[in-house]
Amino acid sequence: MTQFDMFGLELMPGAPLSPAPAVEIECAPIMLRVVPELDAWTRETQRIHLIAHARDLTRLRAAGDTHRVHCILMNAPYVLLKLNGVGGQW
């Protein structure tokens, strides 16, 4: 069976990948250096997201939109779970 790419052209068969590159990728030192940067980025973006939700609550309460306030409050535990529970660190 012939496979085609998104432009309708036939795919060229490539050489099979040996398991050695996968082991080298796992042990690469660059992988160890990326994790703290990614963790810091995740914490900062999660903090921004939670602060935006807190600001929305006061703005919506002032506007009298109690239904949306109730929805945000009911979804807050699920948002925190999705954000890896970073809200508990504050």
Helices, strands, pairings?
Layout: H1 19-27, H2 29-63, H3 66-82
Radius of gyration, CA atoms, in whole angstroms? 23 Å
Query: Which oligomeric state applies?
Result: single chain
Q: Could you name the ranges where pLDDT drops below 50 across 5 or more consecutive residues?
A: none
Secondary structure class reads mainly alpha
Mean pLDDT: 71
User: Helical segment tally?
Assistant: 3
Distance between the termini: 56 Å
DSSP strand content: under 5%
Following the backbone from N to C, one meets helices and strands in this order, namely HHH
Question: What do these coordinates show?
Answer:
The chain has 90 residues and is an all-alpha fold. The protein has a domain at 33-83. Helix content is 68%, strand content 0%. It contains 3 helices and no strands. It has helices at 19-27, 29-63, 66-82. The chain is elongated and about 65 Å long.
List its traits:
90 residues; mainly alpha
Question: Brief description of this entry?
Answer:
This protein has 90 residues and is mainly α.
